[in-house]
């Protein structure tokens, strides 16, 4: 099998690879290259979740640039989910309330047609940050009939309806849940890693460590000593496990959206 090189890190890759095994960058392939592959190869590489980050060693996750892109993607799900929900509810309710006028029908049509373009923006983010490609979502709107028939015909379009359901019912709840899990795990991990800073602050204010002014006397000092010795190691382990978990969340979310919106 012929060899190629990743344009981002220079690592050798196989001619049929869809991802760089070192940095996780997606390899651009033409439709002709994909159709020449053995039957089912493309779908096997994508659908069975053989993402490069899923093969990364435990502590090797820190060296993968895709890890930090996944964190950015998960962080963006929260504001994007809110935007999608507000955009969908506002324009749909306004246009539905004005359906008795030609302006309401026109506004409804523009709103429905805009949904696939929002999906393309979501797909671009997923592909650039996570490495999961969103299926092509062309609305294929009918060009027959007058404007009113086109507007109401858009309500029956499967791509538009699935996009509408995703933006209205899925995007914001998922964004809130992912943001909460992400912030909780990362803050807990970093809090344990840098728990020793508390000793420095205590010494600066009190002039000693493990003082009764700073800690509850119910806890023996030896327990506090063990805590400050072990906490950074536990924090590093938890942080590493959290990065692996968040990588998987980003990949699973991307594949879930892609699967949800398949035609």
Write the layout of secondary structure elements.
Elements: E1 3-5, E2 12-14, H1 31-36, H2 41-47, H3 65-97, H4 102-130, H5 147-154, H6 158-193, H7 197-206, H8 221-260
Antiparallel strand pairs: 1-2
Helix pairs in contact: 3-4, 3-6, 3-8, 4-5, 4-6, 6-8
Describe this structure in words.
The protein has helices at residues 31-36, 41-47, 65-97, 102-130, 147-154, 158-193, 197-206, 221-260; strands at residues 3-5, 12-14. A two-stranded antiparallel sheet has the order 1-2. Strand 1 (3-5) and strand 2 form a beta hairpin. With 263 residues, it is mainly α. It has a domain at 1-48. It is flat and about 80 Å long. Helices cover 64% and strands 2% of the residues. The chain has 8 helices and 2 strands. The two termini are 34 Å apart.
